[in-house]
Amino acid sequence: MNLYPWQHHDWQQLQNYIVQQRVPQALLINGALGIGKQQLAEQFAHALLCNRPQSTGLSCGQCSSCLLIKAQTHPDFMDVQPEEVGKNITIAQIRTLMEKLNLKPQFERYRAILIHPADALNNAAANAFLKYLEEPTERTVLILVTHRMNKLPATIKSRCQKFTLAMPDKNLVLPWLAQQSTAENAEIVLNLAQGSPLLAQQYATDEHLMQRRDCFNAWLSIARQQSHPVIVAEQWLKLPETTLLFWLSSWVIDLMRYRHQTAPRNLYHADLKMALSELAPHLNPIKLYEFYDLLLQSRRRLETQINKQVLWEEILISWALLNRR
Hints:
Largest sheet: 5 strands, parallel
Structural class: alpha/beta
CATH architecture of the largest domain: 3-Layer(aba) Sandwich
Radius of gyration: 24 Å
Order of helices and strands: HEHHEHEHEHEHHHHHHHHH
Strand content: 5-15%
Number of domains: 2
Helix content: 40-55%
CATH superfamily of the largest domain: P-loop containing nucleotide triphosphate hydrolases
Low-confidence stretches: none
Number of strands: 5
CATH topology of the largest domain: Rossmann fold
Number of helices: 15
Distance between the termini: 57 Å
Shape: elongated
Strand order of the largest sheet: 2-3-4-1-5
CATH class of the largest domain: Alpha Beta
């Protein structure tokens, strides 16, 4: 596994921990979703265990330790993650980990424990893990990965050295995206992914872009009073809520830009600029800002037990009223 083009500076900092023999016992790697945190954490764990690291500090991939990692049988490397996608890391998993950590590392180098996403620790698991953090065992490095720092208990965060990854430089990401067979729409999908390269790579599919176009057309049809908000809301129940809310918010931001500039730059949806530019002049800017506030509130309400059908109906009815002339 190689580094992504935008990760070399971050890797240099991680390598310095090893070179200077100042490896933290608990390292919390955090940053936006889809920028390669997991891959970087794995590289660091592998480098800690490698017997013959390269000049760059990366693992060699060929020594006995690296071969054990590839075979997923290295006794000093443990990867803790939810047993099912979308589930929590349980206290049973942490107890099993603790039993192993009570023993000494089997090899002379470090023992590396990767926990991702760290925010998936449920309350009981987090409390059990905290006890170990207070008295870690020798030559053991805990590497926690998260894109939701606010979900981690303050007691765990305070006992970790934080390593925050910035959003990658667009100039480094776009050439890489172009190499992933997305040259035609690389900038569009990167905007849709809010600058996250790996999300952009996922989005660079005809299916994703077509889904966005269909939602945009439905949104326009409500504005033109050609579709009923309740019917569209029901159709949207099948779509990922956070992605859909981002589309809505970014369409509104682009409309705001058209309200203030004739030909704005840095649009989220440059391929939709004709429809957006035609729609913008007919909208009351104050009402448009109020609608944007509703979208921001809805993002927070998605984390509650709110009825999703009611949520989309409220948003789309408000959108229909905003376009009533």
